[in-house]
Amino acid sequence: SYVFCTLAITDVGYTMVCYGITAVVSVVTISHVTKHINRLAIMGAGLIFHVCLFCVLYLWKPADDDQPVFYVMTAGWALCDIIWTSQIYNLIALLCGDCYEHAYNAYYMIQAAGLSVAFGYSPFLCTETKVFVVGGTLAVGLVIYSIIELRIQKLKKELISSF
């Protein structure tokens, strides 16, 4: 809604190209970084970056002459999305091992349901409220992810200490 309402419908395509290019570069970079850094640290960095994006989205009053800011925000959003998606995929692969098909199917089903709900409430809520809804959903998801991650680390420590 920031791009469509402030600029023009033709600029939506360009911002999506920016999103796609940033996502490709980010997924390659994140895949190399995760080999050397703890997943929780990456999620923490993603959280800090995403909170900053939410603050900008909440405080920013878009204008026609802010066109570069639209692309910076889009690139930032793509980076955050790749952080969450890659770490969730890693967690599913770690937890499910060989029977990952059902977990990925459930992930895509929940994602599709969330997108459907967001599309359904979109015409009824203002952009400011949508930012809060996305932020709240992200917070709940990160709490659940952190609990699972901490349990995995605890199980690893117990397994190592039992040997």
Secondary-structure topology with pairs:
Layout: H1 2-6, H2 9-33, H3 39-59, H4 67-96, H5 100-121, H6 127-162
Organism: Priapulus caudatus (Priapulid worm)
Family: Belongs to the unc-93 family.
Keywords: Membrane, Transmembrane, Transmembrane helix
The count of helical stretches stands at: 6
Number of domain units? 1
Give the fraction of residues assigned to helices: over 70%
How confident overall, as mean pLDDT? Answer: 85
**Unreliable stretches, pLDDT < 50, 5 or more residues?**
none
Major sheet size, sense and barrel closure: none
Radius of gyration, in angstroms, nearest whole number: 18 Å
Mass-distribution shape: elongated
Please state the structural category.
mainly alpha
How far apart are the first and last residues' alpha carbons, in Å? 55 Å
The SSE string, one letter per element, is HHHHHH
Strand tally, please? 0
Quick summary:
This is UNC93-like protein. By secondary structure, this protein is mainly α. It has six helices and no strands.
What report would you give on this structure?
- Belongs to the unc-93 family.
- The chain crosses the membrane at residues 12-33, 40-60, 72-94, 106-125, 131-148.
- It comes from Priapulus caudatus.
- Keywords: Membrane, Transmembrane, Transmembrane helix.
- This is UNC93-like protein.
- The protein has helices spanning 2-6, 9-33, 39-59, 67-96, 100-121, 127-162.
- The chain has one domain (2-162).
- Helix 2 (9-33) packs across helix 4 and helix 3 (39-59) packs antiparallel against helix 4 (67-96).
- With 163 residues, the protein is mainly alpha-helical.
- The model has no long low-confidence stretch (mean pLDDT 85).
- The protein has six helices and no strands.
